């Protein structure tokens, strides 16, 4: 049995099929981990969700920011953006069932073997693995509840806290935790976050995985979300967003091998950097 992790698909259905063929994925034998952002910007979000949902228990998914945007959009808590390619999915007869399936996926997955933890974007430098799991489950429960779509929508329609709110401010605490797990690129060692895409000028900020005294050190983390950084191997972290939808490639890594071997499938580029 092999355990494969695949980077951000973002609706690139043909590339997903090509990569699954390249790794000779067998759902009767292998397991498949998806680092989130299954949908949007690519042209085949409906095909991607149908394919992955159909694989059943062999698939492990964590939610990404584009997946949460879909959830909010489907329930009227977000507006369509210019780059969204989700109309076909939302108009499909099985669209509500697919969105509901996605809504039930976690924000963190940990399994031993193969001894990896999967998130879409990042872990807080002040969290150990147990704390990260506790927080991810709290957000997951909220997303599956009555106010879940509103919570998902609020991650992009209201300013996010840059520091952790007090626990009694439950709504802001949930928003902050969700943002750490699905939106982070840069933060400080003491837990201040920048939600933009560019490197902050403040020298205290660095890539979330680069701070020396992080509490989760020793945990192997596979993640996505950072196409501009590309395929990344840095200590115990493996970043698999190699920019498929931007004209890069879709990447798979075999997590039960050490070091994980990699496979890629080129993408012709459904979007290009700087394009509206």
Helix content: 25-40%
**Strand line-up in the sheet with most strands:** 3-2-1-12-13
Largest sheet: 5 strands, mixed
Number of helices: 8
CATH topology: Purple Acid Phosphatase, chain A, domain 2
CATH first level: which class? Alpha Beta
- Return the CATH architecture: 4-Layer Sandwich
Percent of residues in beta strands: 15-25%
Q: Which stretches are poorly predicted, pLDDT < 50 over at least 5 residues? A: none
Structural shape: globular
CATH superfamily: Metallo-dependent phosphatases
Report, as a whole number of angstroms, the end-to-end distance.
43 Å
N to C succession of SSEs: EHEHEHHHEEHHHEEEEEEEE
Q: Output the radius of gyration.
A: 17 Å
- Helical/strand content category: alpha/beta
Number of strands: 13
Key features of this structure:
276 residues, alpha/beta, 5-stranded mixed sheet, globular
Structural summary, described in words:
The chain is an alpha/beta fold and 276 residues long. It has a single domain, classed as Metallo-dependent phosphatases (Purple Acid Phosphatase, chain A, domain 2, 4-Layer Sandwich). It has 8 helices and 13 strands. The longest helix is centred in the middle third of the chain and has 16 residues, at 129-144. It is globular, with a radius of gyration of 17 Å.
